[in-house]
Amino acid sequence: MSDVARIAFPPPDKTNGKRLAKAVERAGEEFAAKNLRFTKLRQMVYEEIAATYASIGAYEILARLADKGTRVAPISIYRAIDALLEAGVIHRLESKNAFFACRRMDHRTGRRPLFLSCEKCGAVGEVDGQHIFDLIGEAAVGAKFQARVKFVEVQGLCPRCAAGGGKE
Amino acid sequence: MSDVARIAFPPPDKTNGKRLAKAVERAGEEFAAKNLRFTKLRQMVYEEIAATYASIGAYEILARLADKGTRVAPISIYRAIDALLEAGVIHRLESKNAFFACRRMDHRTGRRPLFLSCEKCGAVGEVDGQHIFDLIGEAAVGAKFQARVKFVEVQGLCPRCAAGGGKE
DNA sequence: GACCTTCCGTTACACGATATCATGACGGTC
DNA sequence: GACCGTCATGATATCGTGTAACGGAAGGTC
Ligand SMILES: [Zn+2]
Ligand SMILES: [Zn+2]
Ligand SMILES: [Zn+2]
Ligand SMILES: [Zn+2]
């Protein structure tokens, strides 16, 4: 597997406590850098999202927290999600109404990523798509359309699943 | 306004019975060409979608049909929508969970359209985006990702609304 | 007619998201 | 300490989107 493929699609379930702790720490730094509060609830919600490379729905997060003894209302999950989105540590998959943790802390280079979502294992990868967003902007200009929000999402098979390595 | 802009973004409300009848007729031809049945329900659902240039949700269609005396269950609306999607006479906007009528009967040239959705008036336009989809395909190949379904959607202001001509 | 396939009606439910109002925690100010 | 503004959270209810399962109706085919 090439480097870019490995980076974009690590194993979907490697929960690895150490890696997760590292991700939480980086998320905390992002919050601090933006003068946002990384509260207990936000951290718990983030941990559920970051514990998997797959995308996860709000109610799935709710259920997992409930299993661990933390029972909260849907609205609380969504408020936490909003904060995480604002901090830029998670992304929303429009085509699935679900969320996943950002694995690339380099968005502020200004280059936008495009999302690759595996239909078999659920893993979501991000690859650079700046040139594509540029082209979309040009197409909009050509139509006299004032573009504000653009999203590009691709569904298919990740390298692992395409090779038959995904969970059956 | 340029030609391309006018074509992509006609007035969102020009319901014009004659134009609608023409659209229904063309939709019927599409169904026939694909050996699908353009049933009464499908035609009614199509008429509600095609009666506006804006996108419309399934339950909004449901409500409008109910107002006209036709009361059906959500599942029936969705089944009709599935058939209309399969016939290619409507499209789905993933970012809004809504549907709109296709105004370009030239997709089978093989060139895929790009959806431009106005945040103010709701109108949805289509412009050629084949080169963009090609580029996305290349990006996926670079990540060893086997792409199957690609979504590209843009939200912003249509030419009319950007110029202050949309309904306030 | 009998047969088969597709479409539709009904019921019930799962999942996604928001409105509204109330409570609590924290920091600053007087 | 008492007051106040802001933000985060809690509680309840409701709305919006989408599907499963089953049975019956409609339409083509022989
Ligand atoms: Zn990211
Ligand atoms: Zn996979
Ligand atoms: Zn179209
Ligand atoms: Zn508009």
Written account of the structure:
Two copies of one chain form a homodimer. The longest helix of chain A has 17 residues, at 17-33. Chain A has helices at residues 3-8, 17-33, 40-50, 58-67, 74-87, 130-142, 159-162; strands at residues 90-93, 98-101, 113-118, 124-128, 146-157. In chain A, the strands form two sheets. In chain A, strands 4-3-5 form a three-stranded mixed beta sheet. Chain A has one domain (3-162): Orthogonal Bundle (Arc Repressor Mutant, subunit A). Chain A has 168 residues and is α+β, with helices and mostly antiparallel strands. The interface between A and B is large, with 40 and 41 residues. One zinc ion is lined by residues 91, 102, 104, 107, 113, 126 of chain A.
Structure summary:
Two copies of one chain form a homodimer. With 168 residues, chain A is of the alpha+beta class.
Bound molecules: zinc ion
Task: Write out the CATH superfamily name of chain A.
Answer: Winged helix-like DNA-binding domain superfamily/Winged helix DNA-binding domain
Would you identify the CATH architecture of chain A?
Answer: Orthogonal Bundle
Structural class of chain A: alpha+beta
Largest beta-sheet characterization of chain A: 3 strands, mixed
Our count of domains of chain A comes out at 1
> What order do the SSEs of chain A take from the amino end to the carboxyl end, as H and E?
HHHHHEEEEHEH
What is the largest interface, and how many residues per chain?
A-B, 40 and 41 residues
Categorize the overall geometry of chain A. globular
